[in-house]
Design brief:
heterodimer, A: Rossmann fold, 7-stranded parallel beta sheet, B: alpha/beta, Rossmann fold, 2 domains, 9-stranded mixed beta sheet, binds flavin-adenine dinucleotide, binds adenosine monophosphate
């Protein structure tokens, strides 16, 4: 059955974000002959339509007011796109803005959204959305009793769409008023390679014992290569103030899927693993031979990180 | 200012995965033996945020509302012990097996019934289903603005000044009242009630409201009103067994690991 699918797109530097392209690819796989469209709001939106691979139509507005996300401004524009695209399914990135768009848009359209989904499939004509629950201990699959079905989708749940972008653009209204005002922004992200992009992520946990422990973690990342490895942290370490929140890996932090993830002095709580179980190879260093992390790691060293990490640094430097 | 804190009781999210069981027949989590349910962590933090505003603004009042079964009274008592003034439990078999929408509908109806509420504080997400939408749905039900994933909340400016956690930084926002705020762990730890406060809270009566008290029809809430239907609840499959590096010294183990990665061409 043909399905119209609307992707709520996001722009970064005037281009559709990687997650937007992933959702467009996911949409292509589910449309079964229906129309795939995308919304693009903010500076460069009209020009970016051509880069929205897999979308037939782009609903756009270049109003720079949209560059800073305010739900009360975005929602009427998205509503106007839904009126015209008449979708059976709306796909939204599970991003800072998507977390707000999903529930509010679903309510305004008298329907429901499944948040933080990792897969959406067609099961005998019905859409089923699967998402982790209970901190990653369970996978919950939902069907939708109301239309359109809506889902916010985790990054890297689909491959990126390639090919030609939208050939038709349809204008959306410019931004209206917002009761909520944004008065400032403070960047907290580390310089250089970002944990979402790094092929290797080395993370430290509460077992490091102090903020100084992260110096060893950083030294290990540097030994692997500053162009290859970035440093992450468990929430316990972030909550203790040992490392910035922007580097937190897990359910309430960032989701990373590097080639190698090295968890050092991290016990392996399901909520932490929710952020790194997409790694190709998970390696752990932990002094507890019974730690939960061993049920998930591929390779491991049981021992005190204070001895193991310097030895690893030496070995990697030999490379 | 009258602030409502929405607080949910959940199975302890720190339950070790080995003790985590799903009953496939009912698609429900089997309560782990000997591990008591808890107040969802972020809701305790939302309560802390509300209490700090109460303490900074004379004449303020905090009401804690929970939708749940009889046992959820314990979550309410915990927030009362922290310093909330009143507790309301939305307790009706009709509420069972609802979704985020029906939960928000009932909570919003209770907030309207209280009448003079100027702010609603929720957790960023309930630590059982990890949805993160009830706060925003309450805002939609009431037609209020919302600020989500707050690191700090204070009175000031247009009403509330909120610092929000974004992926790579913090956003400062200002929202007029009435408003909904959802609070994240970056806010800091909630206070730990002392024994006299726990005893005083134990004596307080918790108001109980059913669908009828909220002007809701049983068909609008719980499983009957739910828009999302849970089809399956399963345990994810785990990877292969770990290979621990042999060696008498950390140097030998480290060498074995790096050799292994090079042999696998992972590095
Ligand atoms: C709703 C919710 C969301 C959450 N979101 C996240 C999230 O996004 N990210 C996250 O990380 N957590 C999250 N958590 C918290 C999670 O449940 C755990 O509490 C947390 O991950 C524990 O961090 P940790 O492994 O660093 O600390 P611990 O569990 O305390 O583990 C420390 C480990 O270090 C080991 N150790 C100690 N000393 C040494 C040493 N000298 N050498 C080697 N090893 C040593 C110990 O054996 C232990 O295994 C969340 C929790 C909830 C309820
Ligand atoms: N049953 C409930 N009773 C009271 N508050 C709830 C309930 N369910 C959700 N909430 C509130 O809404 C927040 C987000 O929940 P959720 O959308 O389910 O992740 C929670 O942190 C609570 O503040």
């Amino acid at each position: 059955m043909a399905r119209n699918i609307l992707v709520v797109g996001e722009l970064s530097g005037g281009q559709p974000t990687p997650t937007t392209l992933e959702l467009l690819n996911g949409a292509a796989g589910l449309a079964a002959g229906g129309v795939v469209s995308v919304t693009l709001l903010g500076t460069g939106a009209t020009a970016a339509a051509a880069a929205a691979a897999g979308a037939a139509t782009a609903y756009v507005n270049d109003d720079a007011t949209y560059d800073t996300f305010r739900a009360e401004q975005w929602l009427p524009a998205l509503g106007a796109a839904l009126d015209q695209a008449n979708p059976d399914l709306v796909l939204i990135p599970q991003s800072a803005s998507g977390r707000e768009i999903g529930p509010r848009l679903s309510h305004r359209r008298n329907t429901a959204v499944a948040m933080d989904c990792i897969s959406i499939v067609d099961e005998g004509g019905a859409l089923k959305a699967t998402r982790p629950a209970y901190g990653g201990n369970a996978l919950a699959t939902y069907s939708f009793a109301t239309a359109p079905a809506m889902a916010t989708v985790r990054s890297k749940s689909f491959d990126r769409a390639t090919g030609p972008g939208a050939s038709t653009t349809v204008p959306l209204p410019a931004a209206g008023e917002s009761r909520t005002l944004v008065t400032g922004y403070e960047a907290s992200v580390s310089e250089g390679l970002q944990i979402q992009d790094a092929p290797v992520v080395v993370s430290g946990g509460r077992g490091l014992g102090s903020a100084e422990g992260f110096q060893l973690i950083e030294a290990l990342a540097a030994a692997i290569g500053t162009d290859k490895a970035a440093v992450g942290a468990s929430r316990a370490a972030v909550d203790l103030g040992w490392y910035p929140p922007s580097q937190q890996v897990g359910l309430t932090g960032k989701v990373v899927s590097p080639d190698i993830y090295i968890a050092i002095a991290i016990s392996g709580a399901s909520q932490h693993l929710a952020g790194c179980s997409g790694a190709k190879v998970l390696i752990a260093v932990n002094r507890d031979p019974d730690a939960n992390i061993w049920s998930f790691a591929k390779y491991g060293i049981v021992g005190d990180y204070k001895n193991v990490v310097p030895a690893l640094i030496e070995e990697f430097k030999k490379g | 200012m009258h602030i409502v804190v929405c607080a949910k009781q959940i199975p302890d999210p720190e339950t070790p995965p080995s003790a985590f069981r799903i009953d496939a027949a009912t698609n429900k989590v089997v309560p782990a033996q000997g591990i008591a349910p808890v107040l969802s962590q972020f809701d305790g933090i939302a309560a802390e945020a509300a209490l700090r505003i109460k303490e900074a603004n004379a004449g303020s009042k905090v009401t804690v509302i929970s939708l749940g079964a009889d046992s959820a009274a314990a979550a309410i008592k915990q927030v009362l012990a922290m310093g909330a003034d009143e507790g309301v439990l939305l307790n009706d078999p009709a509420f069972e097996d609802g979704d985020s929408y029906t939960t928000a509908k009932a909570l919003a109806a209770a907030i309207k019934k209280l009448g003079d509420v100027e702010a609603v504080f929720c957790g960023r997400q309930a630590a059982d289903w990890d949805m993160g939408q009830v706060g925003l749905l309450i805002a939609e039900e009431l037609g209020w603005p919302a600020s989500i994933i707050a690191k700090s909340v204070t009175t000031g400016g247009a009403g509330l000044q909120v610092q929000r956690v974004l992926a790579d930084g913090f956003e400062n926002a200002e929202t007029p009242l009435p408003a909904v705020v959802t609070v994240s762990n970056e806010f800091g730890e909630p206070r730990y009630p002392k024994l006299p406060q726990i005893m005083a809270a134990a004596k307080k009566t918790v108001t109980q409201w059913k669908t009828g008290d909220l002007g809701l029809d049983p068909s609008q809430v719980g499983a009957a009103g739910a828009r999302l239907k849970l089809e399956r609840l399963a345990t994810p499959t785990r990877g292969a067994k770990v290979e621990l590096m042999e060696g008498d010294t950390p140097q030998a183990q480290a060498a074995a690991l790096v050799a292994r990665l090079r042999a696998d061409k992972i590095l």
